What does this fold into?
Amino acid sequence: MHSLKRFIPASFVVLWATGFIGARYAMPWAEPFTFLAARFVIAALLLAGLMLVLDSKRATRAEALHATVAGILMHGVYLGAVFWAIHRGMPAGLSALIVGLQPLITAVLAGKFLGEAILPRHWAGLAVGLIGVVIVLWPKLGALGGGVTPETLVASFVSVLGMSAGTIWQKRYASGGDLVAATMWQYIGGGALMILASLAFETHTVIINGELIFAMAWLVLVLSIGAIFLLMVMIRDGEMSKVASLFYLVPAVTAVIAWALFGEQLSLVQIVGMAIATLGVGLATARPVRGKTRELRI
It folds into this structure.
């Protein structure tokens, strides 16, 4: 079992990177908050059924409350804000670049609220990783278009803060209980926020077709259950600053998937950026030669 855990980081990055596939197919046919509300409700129902099948331990009132707060931040605020910004015209490349700040912000919060000791080598790795992300995304930043407004910029930065704060909250308050139960409560929280947002700001217009059904199935099963469950395991067992650094690899893997599936251009500059991002993650997750800083055990 321990040997299988070493594949969790790579598996998470690949699964998380496929999220753009679902978003690409879903966004023309449904408003963002309405789509996310349905996605989170379906995920919560599936996880509730899984709890019954596995006879999982139910969360205590405190565990459910903390998982709900984490879900509001990680799923509701993060995905709600970034989907809304892209729906309003924010270029996906610029949005991804802003979201790329998440590992640095998480490292700062982890040091303050979790007491994690982050070595200079790890800070260097986070900086190098961010440089790699910028290089990978650079070709997509040429034409920003009219979707870059104060509102969409604020939404993109709010999404970063939501994900960073949510993972810190999950690590500090909600990582001790059953993972299936905790994840279900996360989606209850995220779904409640998206339902309120859709009622307040959207018309609930949905065009049901094959693309939308595929997107919903992919995002629920592969992302909301598969990738998030792997993330919960890493948050439970590893240091948050090191777990967060894995997000630097997502734009690179996304670019490769887009090249393979949709024929999008993959330039030499982007390949160099991928190598730099990988180097940064390697530095950020490196085991200390000595000292008491914990390694990332997943």
In short: The chain has one domain: 2-284.
